[in-house]
Design brief:
The chain is of the alpha+beta class and about 180 residues long. Helix content is about 30%, strand content about 25%. The chain has a four-stranded antiparallel β-sheet with strand order 3-2-1-5, with helices on one face. A four-stranded antiparallel β-sheet has the order 4-6-7-8, covered by helices on one side.
């Protein structure tokens, strides 16, 4: 079959091709922006889940050992040491550690973002968490640990209230102005 079989049809014009390419570019640009936001939301949520799990594991380990333990917060790493928090720990005291994925970092005292759900005296994020096992009570004291995704406005707050036995987390996608439990 040849184009001659279809009188008046000679293919598509350059203007039509450019219009289709432009529309495809706009649609893919919108999709990439949405995908980027979804990726950031997913990574900060994963950090909240993983740090909460680490703190629960640390509490269980302190109870199992029936001894004081300390979780230190530094840059991208949580470290669980045997012993009190107010002493210098040797590498032999290290029980466990957890490192965040590349874009996430821990925030400590001095952060402009405060933890939700806590009284004013406990709103600042912790740089160390003392664990003291007690029968029938969680060894984790009231307080929080903050995680930030890159330089974005996405935060995860890992929280322990004195009125709750377990550790839980909340997320903020607006620089800490509002928090929600996923």
């Amino acid at each position: 079959m040849k184009l001659a079989d279809y009188p008046g049809k000679r293919g598509v014009t350059l203007v039509e091709v450019l219009a289709v390419v432009t529309i495809m570019g706009i649609l893919s640009g919108i999709g990439v922006a949405g995908l980027r936001n979804a990726m950031m939301n997913s990574r900060i949520k994963d950090a909240g889940i993983n740090v909460t799990a680490f703190m629960e594991r640390a509490a269980n380990e302190a109870t199992r050992l029936n001894s004081k333990a300390c979780v230190t917060v530094s840059g991208k790493t949580l470290k669980l040491y045997k012993g009190a928090c107010n002493v210098k720990h040797a590498n032999t005291d290290l029980i466990d550690d957890f490192t965040l994925e590349s874009a996430n970092t821990f925030l400590t005292t001095g952060s402009s973002v405060n933890c939700p759900d806590l009284p004013a005296a406990k709103k600042a994020p912790a740089s160390s968490v003392p664990l003291e096992p007690k029968i029938g009570v969680s060894p984790v004291p009231a307080g929080c640990i903050l995680v930030r995704y890159g330089s974005s406005d996405r935060y995860a707050s890992i929280i322990k209230l004195s009125t709750k036995f377990s550790v839980y987390y909340k997320l903020s996608y607006d620089s800490g102005s509002s928090w929600f439990e996923p």
